[in-house]
Amino acid sequence: MLLALAGLTYAAPAQAADQPPACTQEGFHPHPDDKARFYRCVDFSGEGEEFTRFDFQCGPGTLYHPELVTCVHPWQMPPS
């Protein structure tokens, strides 16, 4: 519900055909091929060995800003 209010959509864990690199650490990470997508790696075991990835899509017209860990308008992105 909170994600919907923030303009984000949640996608179920990705299938093999559309996977970014495997999770190696917890946290939010930009998708390597699409600036409007990002994913979160979570270690439910607390052992740092097995991660669950959750994929997200920014709302229309916005891009993922990795330093702010949120979706922003393109003019708010840092220079590339």
Can you describe what's shown?
The chain is mainly beta. It has one domain. 5% of the residues lie in helices and 31% in strands. The protein is built from one helix and six strands; from the N terminus they run H-E-E-E-E-E-E. The strands form two sheets. A four-stranded antiparallel β-sheet has the order 1-4-3-2, with no helix packed on it. Strands 5-6 form a two-stranded antiparallel ribbon. The chain is elongated and about 40 Å long. The model has no long low-confidence stretch (mean pLDDT 84).
Counted beta strands: 6
- The helix content is under 10%
Domain count: the total is 1
Question: Helical stretch count?
Answer: 1
This entry's quaternary arrangement is single chain
Strand content: 25-35%
Task: List its traits.
80 residues, single chain, 4-stranded antiparallel beta sheet, 6 strands, two-stranded antiparallel sheet, 1 helix, mainly beta, elongated
